[in-house]
Amino acid sequence: MSEPELLHIGYGAGFAGDRPDAAIALAHDLAERPGPRYLAFELLAERTLAETQQRRLADPEQGYAERLFDFLDPVLPICLPAGIPIITNGGAAHPVAAARRLRATLERIGHGGARIACVLGDDLQDALDPHHPPAWLPREVPFEDIVSCHVYIGAESVTRALEEGADVVICGRIADPSMAVGAIRHAFGWSATDWQRTAIALATGHLLECCTQVTGGYFADPGFKDVPDPAHPGCPIVELKRSGELVVTKTAGSGGVVNARTVREQLLYEIHDPGAYLTPDGVLDLNEVTVIDHGNDRVEVTGIRGHPAPDTLKGNLGLGGLWFGEAGISYAGPNALARARLARDILLERSREQCPQLSPRIDLIGVCSVLGDDRGEALEQTMAEGATGTDVRVRLGVVDRDRAAIARLLQEVEALYTNGPAGGGGVRKRLGESLRTSAFTIDRTLVSTTLRWF
Fold first, then answer.
1. pLDDT one-digit tens code per residue, 183-206
2. Residue 396 forms beta bridges with which residues?
């Protein structure tokens, strides 16, 4: 059999809250294309791992991305008969539990012969000994706050799984572009130390990793950057030739747009240094990139360069130990802004009296909120400049270790019904654990990955 000269790869999700229906159209589109084809689902964010780890601790059969099977179930009957491998990081904190559930699903739908590979090795929780903490663990992090500990792994195990016949590859904290890198190395046999070709594979993964962001999602700005049929942006597909020619396009018949601007924005997304985008598989250099818009939702990217992979890998700690409280009340109609401001002043005074250890932030939504600051200085400046408003929501937010104190302060918002300015309404409040993250680096020789088959 001759070696393939062209592959197609698409991402059907860019985060856990994405839309499964777009992925179904992507699977159908890929099934109609020739040559090697791959479908990937990117379902993790930094805090997602901490949240999934908590679910795993509560139930040993949980711990994968909560909506993983909303994405997998509809595409399995399309991808498996068509020979399209599926790759996902939706295994999150417990890829093995995801594989067990998927095995049961496959048996039920008549695809019991499909092979599932779990990529393990990113979870470093077992290395955390409170009496002998590892040297790579940041000293400033309270050990008792650690909920999860994962390292961003690269593409090696994905390639190996595909070479050994995996139909579905379930990963945890693999780097987002690495799912594409693993697939591309599988299709073309590119070496893991061929830094130039690795960079092309990394650019492919980076363009795809946020799914519809490169097809017009998170892009539209009416009158400046209009997007056709923005309610139905299609999933992105990269057509990649063995020669390195890379074209971005999207699912046939879908909404959204792929043009030079959407591609440029995605190329620079989360890039701190365009000349050195560090990943576990290599360093992507975008300094000489050229974007060529061929029209009809087809954009070519050239000039990609690569450099050797860094000696260290990035890790991510999920941290608990804090609580987040939020509450709001609305004021509308004549003199609404003055009443909302009075409500804010009352809440600040009650906070100082009742919960002096807390430092709440209180915004006036409709006047100054997103552009505000914790000290309220931007709000005061906005008010001094003559702000007006007839529809204002007072929003209080606070983070602290003292859950009971937060609960008392949230109750102060509700108490405004009968103790605050006239006409307040629509109180909502919630209180839950606040998860945060902390990054670290670890020598890559200390991390090894394995495959487990189901």
1. 999 999 999 999 999 999 999 999
2. 327, 362
